[in-house]
Amino acid sequence: MAASNAELDYEFLPYLRVYKNGHVERLLGTDSLPAGTDSQTGVSSKDISNIIPDSEVYIRIYVPNISILGNQKLPLVIYFHGGGFCMFTPSSSNYHNYLNTLVSEARIIAVSVHYRRPPEHPLPIAYEDSWQALQWVFSHCNGDGQEPWLNEHANFGRVFLSGDSAGANIAHNLAMAAGSVEPELMVDILGVALVHPYFWGSGPIGSEALYPDKKAHVDRLWSFVCPSNPDNNDPRINPMSEGAPSLTSLGCRRVLISVAEKDILKDRGWAYFQALGRSGWMGVVEIQETEGEDHVFHLNNLQCQKSKDLIKNLAHFFNREMPHFLIKH
User: Fold this and answer.
1) Is 84 inside any structural domain?
2) Residues in a beta bridge with 76
3) Mind listing the pLDDT tens digit for each residue in 69-114?
4) Within-domain flag for 100
5) Which residues, in sequence order, are CB contacts of 298 under 8 Å at separation 6+?
6) Which PANTHER family match (predicted)?
7) Is the pTM of this model over 0.70?
8) Which of 6, 92, 115, 270 could form a disulfide with 19 if both were Cys (CB 3.0 to 4.6 A apart)?
9) 80 beta partners
10) How many Cβ atoms from other residues are within 10 Å of residue 266's Cβ?
11) Does residue 44 carry a catalytic annotation?
12) Which residues pair with 112 in a beta bridge?
């Protein structure tokens, strides 16, 4: 039976509808752009499947203008897309265009990870897929992995995790795992860049209570994607909650947090910044706030000046040699 004629089981707008025949109809991020060479930036990309056998997990690798790259080794950024854990892929136009722009501006190698998504694959599957993808990328650190672009051009002494929204949440949780895993990872993670990270909690903080409709929507999301532990104080979604692992375990040396003034998640980003700064973690954390903008605004308009400023700040974070403490607001 076609989904359009099937009986609706439930819907979680504006993300998706689920039908009683099991079909999931995603309403956002369903467009797709192929990998290849971008005519605007000269950035080349390719897809690698079978990262996890018999699954839909894949990665899209980006390199800047491969025709003139030569034997240069560039910082490696492993990127996790957002979308409430349940929407979008690396081939969605907003993410593909963003990674082309970021790679061109920052002169980095980027690996964009596609993890399995709820509701078909509820959390923690996205975390587990992302961890396995990270391990696959790190298997190239000695130059003898299966992907030549990583063997030839990735500087495994300068590895960063990044993502936006739910993808930033994944990046944080992988960095926490990297700081406590035994045995240690083959590669050290230098830094983590969190753009408009999806952190939450059971009680409102800051200005959250002023936006009851937005708050109700975010309140519902975690229980939808993680039905096995629907509490909004789960440490994976609220790393500042009582009983959460200490942030001193964060397995990197630098953290950049970007928040947006009109984003209901903004206050959680600031709370994370403050908690990390006073935790005793031995790294450098910085935060920037974009005035007048809402959640992941940059993905929808890469050409506006505020998007360009955000991307330039990320490029600086990935390339500078010495960390320094900086607050911008």
Assistant:
1) yes
2) 109, 159
3) 888 899 999 999 999 999 999 999 999 999 999 999 999 999 999 9
4) yes
5) 98, 195, 304, 306, 307, 310, 311
6) ALPHA_BETA HYDROLASE FOLD-3 DOMAIN-CONTAINING PROTEIN (PTHR23024:SF458), ARYLACETAMIDE DEACETYLASE (PTHR23024)
7) yes
8) 6
9) 113, 163
10) 20
11) no
12) 60, 79
